[in-house]
């Protein structure tokens, strides 16, 4: 019998497809039961935008507001996730695709766990965001475009990365040497380049209330 093929990153792999010989286990506590116990539904709030557009700041502020209201919520932030789950990935198109695939799957688990999960990733490619959206039911994936022009983000340059990218010290930097495909029809487009944080938080909270994710009037 010949040995199963191996992948340098993931070890032994099967030629039969990942789901062969693996069954799905259903748990008796399901998403609906969790929503009933917690008093709110779960959702994925998918923040996307250029570096410096305000994804982390806005996701963190919205998360704090939800937490203060007693909701179960959690932020998955690109910088943090790349220190652990995705530390093997760089910034080529393929690496970003794999990054967003993993985050889509992790977000789906949070959704099932009854948590409002807020993801803050550049997620520059429409196809990758659409694949993450397709993992869950319509209405569960709320795409929030942090809309700030490149000039604004570069002017902020909160981490000094744009200066490095312009100097050629960082390759494939989004907006400079790698593309950003802005969402055409996001659930929400927040002008984070021109309004202040409090205004942006209010826009998101009012959308969530209108969608029944959080109680009305919050
Ligand atoms: N080449 C390149 N392009 C874009 N961003 C870069 C790059 N190299 C490092 N960084 C820093 O990594 C953060 C983006 O990671 P993400 O996981 O969100 O990227 S992606 O969704 O896979 O495109 C991003 O964080 P934010 O500034 O918070 O967006 C950067 O700080
Ligand atoms: N409306 C807004 N929403 C979010 N951030 C804002 C807003 N207005 C100004 N900012 C500022 O823009 C910067 C955004 O940085 P950051 O949140 O790290 O962006 P990103 O996570 O997209 O890289 C912060 O310094 C933040 O204070």
Automatic annotation (TrEMBL):
The active site is at residue 123. Its EC number is 2.7.1.25. Residues 41-190 form the APS kinase domain. ATP binds at residues 49-56. The keyword Disulfide bond does not apply. One of its GO terms (biological process) is sulfate assimilation. Keywords: ATP-binding, Kinase, Nucleotide-binding, Phosphoprotein, Transferase. Pathway: Sulfur metabolism; hydrogen sulfide biosynthesis; sulfite from sulfate: step 2/3. It comes from the Bacteria. One of its GO terms (molecular function) is adenylylsulfate kinase activity. The keyword Phosphoprotein applies. It catalyses: adenosine 5'-phosphosulfate + ATP = 3'-phosphoadenylyl sulfate + ADP + H(+). Belongs to the APS kinase family. Catalyzes the synthesis of activated sulfate. This is Adenylyl-sulfate kinase. It comes from Cyanobium usitatum str. Tous. The gene is cysC.
């Amino acid at each position: 019998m010949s040995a199963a093929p191996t992948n340098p990153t993931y070890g032994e792999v099967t030629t039969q497809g990942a789901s062969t010989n693996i069954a799905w286990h259903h748990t008796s506590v399901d998403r609906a039961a969790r929503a009933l116990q917690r008093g709110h539904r779960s959702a994925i709030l998918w923040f996307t935008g250029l570096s410096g557009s305000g994804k982390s700041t806005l996701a963190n502020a919205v998360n704090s507001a939800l937490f203060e209201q007693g909701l179960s919520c959690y932020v998955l932030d690109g910088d943090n996730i790349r220190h652990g789950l995705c530390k093997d990935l760089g910034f080529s198109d393929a690496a970003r695709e794999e990054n967003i695939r993993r985050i889509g799957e992790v977000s789906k688990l949070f959704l099932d766990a009854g948590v409002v999960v807020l993801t803050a990733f550049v997620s520059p490619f429409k196809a990758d965001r659409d694949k993450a959206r397709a993992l869950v039911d319509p209405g569960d994936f709320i795409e929030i475009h942090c809309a700030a022009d490149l000039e604004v983000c570069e002017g902020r340059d909160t981490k000094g990365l744009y200066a490095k990218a312009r100097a050629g010290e960082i390759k494939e930097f989004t907006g400079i040497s790698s593309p950003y495909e802005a969402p055409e029809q996001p659930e929400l487009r927040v002008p984070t380049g021109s309004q202040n944080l409090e205004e942006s938080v209010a826009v998101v909270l009012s959308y969530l209330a209108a969608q029944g994710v959080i109680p009305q009037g919050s």
